[in-house]
Design a protein that fits this description.
With 240 residues, this protein is mainly alpha-helical. Strands 2-1-3 form a three-stranded parallel beta sheet. Helix 6 links the parallel strand 1 and strand 2. Helix 3 packs antiparallel against helix 6. The radius of gyration is 17 Å and the shape is globular. The N terminus is likely disordered.
Length: 240
């Protein structure tokens, strides 16, 4: 989530590389960070050439594709950087496909079972191997604004600790979603993972987290069997 209250508590670990795999069929919206020439930072000519095939995967599922992420986040109020139940169902399907086709693979820090449909890859792995490369190519906006460039009303603030499995997280949120509520603000999806998150949270009381908390009539706490969530300082601060 950044480094204002702790030492980069939300910075996803870099995955260990492996040889590049052929991309799936166009239109699936998936790609792998594990190509040896893909870079998450500023891209040079080689990196741009490697990223170019992913532009063909642009689809109606990502209405914000091609917009300027920094400008988008400057123009849309932070409390509207939200996702819907439909977004989570869509994401679960894409992550399952990515695991089944070895686009997201187990590593030492996250030895998940690719065929397990209960836990799935950790949220750290989901961000580093799926959300960051996807949104980097799309325009460096958050996944929430890639799906909803105009934003959504913030009805729910989700607090969680990043250690949970992606499927575990999605299923618990969907099961607990309050009736009649539209949008949920969750840091992983709301914050632009390829931009300067540390700048966004340098003043916690005026950060996107605080703005969303003030706007949301509901707060959802998502626990995990892997770790105690209040070992993370940001979760403690959100409760405070």
């Amino acid at each position: 989530k950044g480094s204002a209250l702790a030492s980069s508590p939300g910075a996803p670990p870099q995955s260990t590389g492996s040889r590049a795999r052929p991309p799936p069929e166009a239109g699936t919206g998936l790609f792998s960070l594990r190509s040896p020439c893909f870079c998450l930072g500023g891209m040079g000519e080689i990196e741009r050439a490697c990223a170019q095939p992913w532009h063909s995967w642009r689809s109606p599922a990502y209405p914000g594709w091609g917009m300027d992420g920094a400008a988008l986040h400057a123009g849309v109020p932070a409390e509207r950087w939200c996702i819907s139940k439909r977004d989570l169902r869509f994401l679960r399907g894409r992550l399952h496909e990515a695991s089944e086709t070895n686009l997201i693979v187990p590593i030492a820090r996250d030895p998940f079972d690719p065929h397990d449909s209960r836990m799935g890859p950790s949220m750290y792995t989901m961000v580093s191997d799926f959300l960051k490369p996807l949104t980097s190519v799309a325009g460096k906006m958050s996944w929430a604004l890639l799906r909803h460039p105009e934003g959504l009303r913030c009805d729910i603030f989700i607090t969680h600790c990043w250690a949970e499995g992606a499927y575990e997280f999605i299923d618990k949120v969907l099961h607990s979603w309050p009736c009649g509520r539209q949008g949920a603000w969750c840091c992983i999806f709301a914050n632009p993972q390829n931009l300067d998150i540390s700048g966004l949270i340098s003043q916690p009381r005026t950060s996107p987290f605080a703005l969303a908390l003030e706007s949301a009539p509901h707060v959802m706490v998502v626990p995990t069997e892997r770790s105690g969530m209040y070992r993370r300082i940001w979760c403690v601060y959100e409760a405070y």
